[in-house]
Design brief:
The protein has 275 residues and is an alpha+beta fold. The chain contains 9 helices and 9 strands. It has one domain. Helices cover 42% and strands 19% of the residues. The strands form 2 sheets. A 7-stranded mixed β-sheet has the order 1-2-8-9-7-6-5. Strands 3-4 form a two-stranded antiparallel ribbon. Strand 5 and strand 6 form a beta hairpin. The protein starts with a strand and ends with a strand.
Amino acid sequence: MIVQNLPPNAPADTPRFVITQVDHARATGTLAEAYGNETFAPLDPFEPLAYMVGHHDEGWTAVDAAAVVDPSTRLPYHLTQTPAHLLVITSTGSPNHNELHHPLSGLISSMHTYGLYNGRYGLSDKVYIDTIAPEMRPRVDAMLGMELARQDTLKKQLRTMPELSDYADEDCLFYYYKLLQFFDTLGLYFHLTYGDIRAEATFKNVPRRLKDDVTIKITPLDENRYALDPFPFNDDVTLSTRGRYLAPLDEGVSKAAAALAETPFEEQTVMLVEG
């Protein structure tokens, strides 16, 4: 679950925009579908990559449905505060789902899981594995070992498929991985933070094509319009994300599922334009 930040002066009981990880992924999928122009190569092969981006957090379905409450906020656990024993469930669930769809979808999804624990393969200085409590470390290490084994199996499978064998090249796979990281982090830029406090930011290592990366800058023009430079999409992009506004629950409530079920969905919508 993503519990969106508010401005520092917002009252403590202000409802927060709560987004399931699946809805976060669906929104990032629209970015993948619009990616590509004369400068930035579109997704290739399109279908398994676009599907994977739009379903890269499918393993969160059961965890988000349970909506366990963080006693420190009295809201569902936010993404980065989710207990490690629940994260292990999500970490294997997403590659499991994507592998059933297509071996390339499963492979990049598995790389995403492994990268989240290991500094996004060097693209980030946040190494989550170093923060795992000692009692959970053996379980996490075993899960990551299974993901590496999954990746080896899927690479071998791709290499036996004439139409996909070239895509199993390590450079090509890392290119796809970096594309997913861009879509994911661009989506999180909007999902983590309320519009009034979004600031100018940069996204590094964004592939224009294989072995050709650039840094993209995003600049808020107003609360609903954001300019990207260079612009990686084939046209202006409308990014709509559904979620629910939920106020902190009463003390002692351990699950937010009932409150969420009674709360109607709303949408936050922004426009991405050329800078």
